[in-house]
Amino acid sequence: MFIIYKHGEWHNIALFYTTSCEYMFQLLLKLLCCFISLQLDDKVTCHKARVSSTLDRLAEQVALEKKERANKCRAFKVRLPQFQAVVFTLCLQFLCI
């Protein structure tokens, strides 16, 4: 008896002693299909995990860039009156000359 793991469950496969090559070929084919199915499931799971990780990393990067832009805008708004005062002073000096 073989015990195999397929589609998230354990399955028992009973082996009957027979001389039929066709039966053995069918059994080996079933085992091969199960193995390929497991490999594909593993690849899909791995790909999903990689995609999820990439999306999480990109979301963190976007959030960080958004926070940096907000900080720059806030700093600009704080300094804007100072810039306006400097420009106004320079204009007055230019006009007085």
Could you characterize the architecture of this molecule?
- The chain is mostly helical and 97 residues long.
- It has one domain (2-96).
- Helices cover 78% and strands 10% of the residues.
- The protein is built from 1 helix and 2 strands.
- A two-stranded antiparallel sheet has the order 1-2.
- The radius of gyration is 35 Å and the shape is rod-shaped.
- The N and C termini lie far apart (104 Å).
- The model has no long low-confidence stretch (mean pLDDT 78).
Strand content: 5-15%
Mean pLDDT reading: 78
The count of domains is 1
Number of strands: 2
Main sheet: which strands, in order across?
A: 1-2
Query: How many strands, what sense, and barrel or not for the largest sheet?
Result: 2 strands, antiparallel
Outline: rod-shaped
What are the segments in which pLDDT stays under 50 over at least 5 consecutive residues? none
Succession of helices and strands: EEH
**Alpha carbon gap, first and last residue:** 104 Å
Structural class: mainly alpha
State the helix count. Answer: 1
The quaternary structure here is single chain
Percentage of residues assigned to helices: over 70%
Rg estimate, integer Å? 35 Å
